[in-house]
Predict the 3D structure of the following.
Amino acid sequence: MTARGRDAAATGPHGRVPVAVLISGRGSNLKALIDAAKAADYPARIALVISNNAAAGGLGFARDAGIPTRVIPHRDFDCREAFDAALDDVLRQAGVSYICLAGFMRLLTPDFVTAWQDRILNIHPALLPAFRGLDTHARALEAGVRFTGCTAHLVRPEMDDGPIIAQAVVPVLPDDDAERLGARVLAAEHRCLPHALALLAGGLIEVRGQRALAHAKPASETYLFNPWLEPDKMA
Ligand code: GRF
């Protein structure tokens, strides 16, 4: 069965692919997903929100939207494997087809990632493969790059690795500090993650080796310069 056929079989009476969103904190990306999924033609529904942290602010967004929540405190487990096994149980009981990591600050074990191969989406606040890991905005400023952004990608066992589904480019401006730049990137994340999940749940992504091909309209071929270059000087 193709991925599209399998997802169609999993949609059930709601007609949309069920997705679990995993969070650890504020949950602004979760909120963006909840809002996107309100559209009648959005191909995924948020069936469950899971947090490893009972104090995660984002749980409130889920509750307000009437979405079931589960807290699985990682401190209750003595190793990553045991935590991931509990997570896997909850996800399988919920019958979700995809997992969306939206500010989930736990590394998943290779066994878990393999069991959910091509079914875990993550949002990272940089243009991968640049600036893997934490403090991406401070590091982008330090490196002097003129653009940064965010990446929605399928998860592989290595941290911040895996086929790229979508990226959004954000300019670094002269007066930026990490906070200002981070806010601009976060606004882009709120567009990029729902877009990537729609492509994935809509069956429009084909994984070939390290690449994810999107059967969707590509970006325009126009160059983007920072600092600005007048369009008539680009040729
Ligand atoms: C986002 O910047 C995301 O890219 C990173 O953690 C942050 C989570 O923010 N992995 P929020 O909880 O979605 O507001």
Remarks:
- The helical segments are 3-11, 28-36, 58-64, 80-94, 110-115, 136-143, 178-201.
- The chain has one domain: 4-212.
- The first helix runs from residue 3 to 11.
- The longest strand covers residues 44-51.
